[in-house]
Amino acid sequence: MNIRKEFIKVKCERKDCPRYNDPCCKISSEIDRVTDYNDIDLFFIGMGGGWREEKLHFPFCGKSGSYMRSIIKYLWELGILFNIALSNTIRGHPKDAQGKDRPPTEEEEQHCRRYLVEDIEKIKPRVLVPTGGCSSTLLLGLPRNTTITSIRGREFEDEDGYKIVPTYHPSFLLRTYNTFDPKKQNEFDVKFINDIKKAISLTSQQSLFF
Fold first, then answer.
1. pLDDT at residue 209 in the model
2. Strands 84-88 and 29-33: what pairing?
3. CATH number reported for the structural domain that contains residue 38 in this entry
């Protein structure tokens, strides 16, 4: 399969950001095209980078990201072709005092939000797919304590007219099941796949399923 990749580097000069001299690893947004058209169908948005993202500077390249990419590849191999973009609400690796991964703070989200908005405006995806509670509540303007189980798989629309379908963060699937096995899909794999199919059904690709 021919995957045409493109990366959009973040050009951050926000010296007022508390992470500016951390230093922030400035994770790029990624575009993967597998169709004969260039439009982006789904834009997957996570909450922030992990250790591997910090090292390589592109999103969803760690263990949990690989889990999600395996599911996307599985759908492509079934002949369900759709172009994707991937990014995060913040472009750094949020860590606690012990150096362990943590969710981004609201302050960090607000400092980085402009770069996500810029990439959305540049890419113009058909549907936004936030993964996990942090990115979903940020994009939907919901309280941060909103559970992902209460909103995943539902269709929303933001003030700019973008359709949004939240889903689980792949780290949840990874912690629960470790690897994705197409022949032994568990209930959360199925829900995650159905959420992706729901998002695709909102694009011009809906004839693939209905």
1. 45
2. antiparallel
3. 3.40.470.10
Q: Is the pTM of this model over 0.90?
A: yes
Residue pointed to by tokens 């939240």: 166
Residue 210 lies in a domain: no
Task: Render pLDDT for 29-86 as a digit per residue (tens, 0 to 9).
Answer: 999 999 999 999 999 999 998 899 989 999 999 999 999 999 999 999 999 999 999 9
Distance CA 99, CA 177 (A): 25
Residue 156, helix vs strand vs coil: strand
For 52, the token pair is 């591997």
Inside any domain, residue 65: yes
pLDDT of 120-136, one tens digit each?
999 999 999 999 999 99
Beta-carbon contacts of 174 under 8 Å, excluding residues fewer than 6 positions away, are 63, 64, 67
In which residue are the tokens 């568990």 written? 186
To the nearest 10 degrees (0 to 180), the angle between helices 187-201 and 63-77 is: 60
Give the pLDDT mean for 172-201: 91
Residue that is written with structure tokens 């540049």 in the block? 122
Closest CA to 114 of 87, 133, 152, 85: 87
Residue 128 phi, psi (nearest 5): -95, 135
Segments forming the whole domain that contains residue 40: 4-205
